[in-house]
Design goal:
2 copies of one chain form a homodimer. The first copy, chain A, has 4 helices and 8 strands. Chain A has 170 residues and is an alpha+beta fold. Chain A has a single domain, classed as Cyclic Phosphodiesterase, Chain: A. A 4-stranded antiparallel sheet of chain A has the order 2-1-7-8. Chains A and B meet through helix 1, strand 7 and strand 8 of A and helix 1, strand 7 and strand 8 of B. Chains A, B: Its EC number is 3.1.-.-. Chains A, B: It is an enzyme of class 3 (hydrolase).
Chain lengths: 170, 170
């Protein structure tokens, strides 16, 4: 099965993200707004059972932390993806690092850019138009994150939560 | 915020449910296939923080249990909802009972019928057609459930998982 690890940011940020995703993100219906912490990886049930205690340990050793969003950015020219840029604090960068630890399944394929996708798979014209408008807009979102989620993918491409890991809890 | 409690059944059952939901359930994109254990209720953050330890206790005192689906059924004439009927074992009925305990927010509004909705808001003609076909079909799904989820609703009507409660765990 395919698994991934993500943060669902507090409702307020999800609602802002969805106001754009609804129009510009074809994955809108597949998963709530999220910060991907570990990209999709294949794993057997048994590997996940082994992984869960490691994830608990990682969560337990952390404390809730703030995320801050001030603007949108984009992955162009690689893809026409537009995202809410999550400020890359040491804490979130360190959490990502731990989730690619050697005891855990799933290999890193690119460097970590904390973000919440709000538009993707746009045509070039649509991309220029939407990005042109959004990059002028300031955002002022600051919220506390206190958990992350291990998810698995269904046959239709959507994601279901397998387990929640609460920061600072055993 | 509005909260609810549900079981996401194992992937195999979710994939079967989605094969119907995709065509017949307008809530297809709002939440993965689920067995509602506690209907949506309003609660403050503080009430949820108080509720979580109770839910942990309820989960801890249980063990993983089997669910069995042999056929579809319907809520007609109340609504044109068609669902996979989850056999109402003592275990799942007892779990529902505990989730309406007096220390927890949210009042019971109707008796508990364990089910996974696969079609709703159909026209009468569509309903007759779909139900006529599906009720002739046997299902033979038996899987183990080992967790339930506390979810909250976003402004667009979709649901995000707040926390997972694993049965038999502290």
């Amino acid at each position: 099965m395919k698994y991934g690890i993500a943060i669902f940011p507090p409702k307020k940020i999800q609602d802002v993200a969805n106001s754009y995703r609804k129009r510009y993100d074809p994955h809108y219906a597949l998963i709530p707004p999220h910060i991907t912490l570990k990209d999709p990886f294949e794993a057997e049930d048994s590997e996940i059972k082994e992984m869960v205690p490691h994830l608990k340990e990682i969560a337990k050793e952390m404390q809730p932390f703030e995320i801050e969003i001030n603007k949108v950015s984009s992955f162009t020219p690689i893809t026409n993806t537009i995202y809410l840029k999550v400020e890359p604090t040491d804490i979130i960068m360190g959490l990502n690092e731990k989730l690619y630890g050697e005891h855990l399944p799933g290999e890193r394929e690119h460097s970590f850019v904390p973000h919440i996708t709000i538009a993707q798979k746009l045509s070039d014209d649509e991309y220029s138009d939407v990005y042109g408008t959004l990059r002028m807009k300031g955002f002022d979102l600051k919220e506390t994150v206190d958990r992350f989620q291990l998810l698995y993918q269904l046959d239709n491409g959507s994601w279901t939560v397998y387990e929640t890991f609460v920061l600072g809890e055993g």
